[in-house]
Write a structure and sequence with these properties.
Chain lengths: ~450, ~110, ~160
């Protein structure tokens, strides 16, 4: 059955090339078809497919293999290698080099015994318990979605693809692992002066404190190179948060002539052709920009039809999921890990969309799936979060935020936030210890 | 979860008489004694009771905080650097916690 | 494409208090906060005034010389930044002996007390207050020459959520 189908598709693909090849029939190898079975099943245990090999997905893959040695674990990832967004702001001013951020993904796959397939995930068919990719179809018993975020440019431009492309190409947000990071660094290196506008996404968004860190480090570059430049942070929030006092002290004391923070500046419209942006706090012209549109759950959650709805029936943009067990509310065999996760509690909304939380939740989900596979009770566990943000280039001084969680008397998850606003070099040292621990966990 | 005090000073090599600004923050619950646990029983009070800063043995500042002070107490103060020496800080709480931090201050020659 | 393998999906342990939690999230955040504290605001400034009178010991406070920086509205009542400083130059012969901060309507109005010495050479402090509601914050500083300086400022704060 499988063979016949792939043959047919292969033949069809060949027919497509017919015109180009002067009438000679050229049959493409069947593996080039997107309908073949991607992998035969292996092992006596369940097959677990992980969509997205970033912080959450790589962690889940390793820990599932350790928790359930008999499981057949397949990790699907579009990018050819791993790029770490954490530390990428520090990389902008060469606190770390490119080799620090980029990693081989084959080595962890080999070391932990999961299969890594580089492909584009195109459809998630939960009714058939299968995932379609650019390289074939794969079926699952359990599915983990860890696709991170997508940039919701549509919120600004509707379906105006020309405006979206103009924005993405000229004013990349560099919030998703891609060449946008390199484009941003080159932009900064070549910056000769003028006003750089930075739009912050409205909450919830990926790594809430990191846009301010990026502003500080870009300002550090501008300051140390005596560039006549300014950075205008257009913040939809009424104040800087988290670590507001620490960031404010850094802006005022280290970059008083460079950084201006504009609160309540929710974006109304963007004109990427004439470099003009209109916000609720006024209109601004810019010479250059880092335009971060609103964030949403990755395409994967939309394709799986697992986006939540608000009271008015409109999409929340994030996964509709159980706040303690991390599976979809409508499908307990599909787990959502990392930034795509939906609201957890009315007290604080979402878990911080951080690599730390993605890693933590991925480990919990691996344990929870293992408990189900063994027929044991599923133990609900809570994460914590820790982020260090560099604000000064010399000395290297960082501030930090920590979030702790417990369950209140009403059964709801509660959040305690600990902002450390005093900038110190030891916090930067701890950041290096933190990321080494993370990389040791999910890379090799 | 015990983390060291986070300390920033405006200069470690001030001129004689220069005003030095100090910021220091620790992680502490500052449990007011008003909060209730899951069963509705009050959580035992645990506040910082004292902070002090000395340059060598000389007292620069002492602070008695109460329940109105935020969690993870942030302390900022200023002093005139009249001599070189060790800036020593000390925190005590209701449960007998004792935390210390210090930093060398060296007057730069005029 | 049915899987050969059928785990037990019904038994779930939600930790001590979580058992009642379903997919829905019924209570508002404000309610969750209310349940968790017995802290009550002072009805008026009487208790704060009593502490101030004790500090003054009959001396009339001066309205000049003590500066207070407090935001007019507290975005986050759990950590309201406050800076207080004596504006005149302090020397080895004139210093600030003691400084108190009063959060007039907090359950315990005396927020904190500072003592300095002749060696300090400054009286300039910053801290963060948690405020149970909108109120006046008051600072009193006693100098070594017997003068007492006073500063006051009002701050607007939302009810609850101050973490006290
Ligand atoms: C500048 C910056 C600084 C940050 N700093 C920190 C920090 O200091 N600490 C911290 O904890 N966090 C930090 N973060 C946040 C952190 O990067 C994210 O929270 C984390 O990556 C989330 O993990 P994830 O698995 O959900 O998503 P990701 O790590 O983004 O992984 C998702 C993966 O899914 C893949 N994918 C998506 N769709 C498809 C598809 N259709 N087909 C195939 N593959 C697909 C993507 O290519 C990607 O590799 C920072 C982020 C940024 C941008």
């Amino acid at each position: 059955m499988i063979k016949r189908r792939s043959f047919l598709i292969g033949a069809a693909a060949g027919a497509g090339v017919l015109g180009l090849n002067g009438g000679r029939l050229l049959a493409a190898p069947s593996v080039l078809s997107s309908s073949v079975q991607l992998m035969p099943r292996e092992g006596s245990g369940p097959r677990i497919v992980i969509c997205g090999g970033g912080w959450g997905g790589l962690t889940a893959a390793r820990h599932l293999r350790e928790e359930i040695p008999e499981a057949d674990v397949i990790l699907l990832e579009r990018n050819p290698f791993f790029w770490s967004c954490p530390m990428s702001n520090k990389w902008l001013i060469d606190v770390v080099d490119t080799a620090f951020l980029t990693h081989d993904m084959l080595a962890p796959a080999q070391a932990h015994g999961y299969k890594l397939v580089h492909c584009e995930i195109t459809e998630i068919e939960r009714d058939k318990k299968q995932v379609r990719t650019s390289r074939g179809v794969v079926d699952y018993d359990y599915l983990i979605l860890s696709g991170g975020i997508r940039n919701d440019y549509e919120a600004w431009f509707g379906n105006d693809q020309t405006a979206i492309e103009q924005t993405r190409r000229n004013f990349p947000s560099a919030y998703i692992p891609s060449s946008e990071h390199i484009a941003l660094k080159n932009k900064l290196k070549n910056f000769k002066g003028g006003v750089i506008v930075m739009t912050l996404p409205p909450p919830p968004h990926r790594c809430p404190p990191s846009p301010y860190e990026r502003a500080c480090l870009m300002a550090w570059h501008i300051k140390t190179n005596n560039i006549p430049g300014k950075i205008l942070i257009l913040d939809p929030k009424p104040r800087i948060a988290p670590i507001g006092a620490g960031y404010k002290a850094a802006f005022d004391e280290l970059y008083p002539d460079i950084i201006t923070h504009v609160p309540n500046a929710r974006v109304k419209s963007v004109d990427p052709f004439n470099k003009r942006i209109s916000t609720e706090a006024g209109d601004f012209d810019f010479d250059d920009a880092v335009l971060m549109p609103p964030h949403q759950a990755s395409d994967l959650v939309w394709r799986a039809d697992l986006i939540g709805k608000d009271a008015e029936g409109k999409p929340t943009g994030w996964a509709d999921m159980h706040p303690r067990l991390y599976h979809a509310n409508s499908d307990e065999d599909v787990y959502i890990v990392g930034d795509s996760m939906g609201a957890i509690s009315p007290q604080f909304g979402h878990y911080p969309k951080s690599g730390h939380v993605a890693n933590y939740i991925a480990k919990i989900v691996a344990r929870n799936i293992a408990q189900r596979v063994r027929g044991e009770e599923v133990v609900a566990e809570l994460p914590d979060n820790l982020c260090y943000m560099l604000v000064n280039g010399d000395p290297l001084e960082a501030i930090s935020v920590e979030f702790l969680y417990d369950v209140g008397p009403d059964g709801l998850v509660r959040q305690t936030q600990i902002d450390i606003d005093v900038r110190t070099p030891d916090l930067m040292d701890e950041d290096f210890v933190w990321i080494k621990g993370m990389f040791d966990d999910f890379l090799v | 979860m015990s983390r060291p005090p986070r300390l920033w000073i405006s200069s470690a090599t001030p001129a004689k008489g220069e005003i030095i600004r100090v910021r220091v923050q620790i992680q502490h619950v500052m449990e007011s004694g008003f909060r209730l646990d899951w069963n509705g029983a009050p959580l035992e009070r645990n506040l910082l009771t004292r902070f002090e800063a000395r340059l060598n043995e000389t007292l620069l500042m002492e602070w008695e905080p109460g329940a109105s002070i935020s969690q993870n107490p942030y302390v900022e103060f200023a002093f005139a650097a009249r001599e070189s020496g060790t800036l020593r800080m000390l925190w005590l709480d209701d449960r007998g916690m004792r935390l210390e931090a210090e930093r060398e201050i060296i007057l730069s020659p005029a | 494409m049915t899987s050969s393998f059928e785990p037990d999906r019904r038994r779930v342990l939600l930790g001590a208090a979580g058992a009642a939690l379903g997919a829905a999230l019924p209570l508002s955040g404000a309610r969750a906060q209310e349940l968790a504290t017995t802290a009550e605001a002072q009805p008026d400034a009487a208790e704060s005034d009593r502490i101030a009178a004790e500090f003054l010991g009959g001396v009339a406070p001066l309205a000049e010389g003590l500066a207070m920086e407090l935001p007019a509205t507290a975005d986050n009542p759990a950590a309201v930044p406050l800076r207080v400083h004596v504006t005149e130059a302090l020397t080895e012969d004139l210093w600030c002996e003691e400084l108190i901060i009063l959060a007039e309507l907090n359950p315990l109005p005396l927020a904190c007390r500072y003592r300095f010495s002749a060696a300090t050479g400054a009286a300039d402090v910053a801290l963060r207050l948690r405020l149970i509601r909108s109120m006046e914050v008051r600072a009193l500083a006693r100098l070594s020459d017997g003068r007492v300086l006073e500063a006051r400022a009002a701050v607007e704060a939302g009810v609850g959520g101050c973490g006290m």
